[in-house]
């Protein structure tokens, strides 16, 4: 087992109380031999030392944190989760990852699982911006923080995010500077703060640059590869196709690039594509995706550090942690001047 064990876990496996576990570890004389054996067997089964269990009893902490993500196969979450795991180890913390859907029932289930593991705090990357169930946990004072997501209507919430609206405007402005006037936008549903803010940024940039807002160029729905690919392919088969695509994630951008290849369009000569996230594969020389960087390493590290401050009550301020990072435009080879 890799999860950090606690006295609670030992007691549960040995079918005794935590008090009995404490007595065994402290060589209390009036403990039956059979009970003592069950406790030591439980410790051996769980694969941890008595010293570690004793620390758990003394501090009431397990040195574990939970990480809730919607889709660990998503490159952005896989990469940031890796950063959080490695950074947590520097502080002698283990991370339990839960892959969860974003509806309130699934979120409640994920929280319940982590509570059962006695985690000291939780990082959440998988939540809808209108989720009100989270209020209960803030009201109880449980350490919980969001990254790459935020909740509206809960002033006490803690989060670390990038300025998604600004990032979207930077992407559109870059395309406009390259003489693109017809820019498609492909994104997920606006029930998530990231997609909502990026769509708002897209609309603002379209208006500020005196471009026509065209609903037929906009997709906000299921971001499965197949759905995105088909929408982009249908647009590229039109005679008056858009000359540029702004994808609200890099993974969406990859599906658009695939559609361009299937339709015989050459990037960036026939069509430009820009993403958002700056996942690792975006910088691959064979792909060279222009994108908006979320500064994901800084976001992940800051989120972990702020959570640990909350867990250890060492945050000198009583104010919520609300950190918004400034995005960065990364220009590679998928965007160019429109010559049509």
- What is the alpha-carbon Rg in Å? 24 Å
State the major sheet.
6 strands, parallel
CATH fold annotation of the largest domain: Rossmann fold
**What top-tier CATH class of the largest domain fits best?**
Alpha Beta
Percentage of residues assigned to helices: 40-55%
Average pLDDT score = 88
Report the strand count.
Answer: 12
Protein name: LacI family transcriptional regulator
Keywords: DNA-binding, Transcription, Transcription regulation
Pfam family, one: Peripla_BP_3
InterPro entries: HTH_LacI, LacI/GalR-like_sensor, Lambda_DNA-bd_dom_sf, Peripla_BP_I
Short description:
The protein is an alpha/beta fold. The protein is about 45% helix and about 15% strand. Helix 11 links the parallel strand 8 and strand 9.
What are the SSEs and their pairings?
Blueprint: H1 7-14, H2 18-25, H3 33-46, H4 50-59, E1 64-69, H5 75-90, E2 94-99, H6 104-116, E3 121-124, H7 134-139, E4 144-147, E5 159-162, H8 164-177, E6 183-187, H9 193-208, E7 218-220, H10 225-236, E8 244-247, H11 250-262, E9 272-274, E10 291-293, H12 296-311, E11 322-325, E12 328-330
Helix pairs in contact: 1-2, 1-3, 5-12, 8-9, 10-11
Keywords: DNA-binding, Transcription, Transcription regulation
Organism: Oceanobacillus kimchii
Protein name: LacI family transcriptional regulator
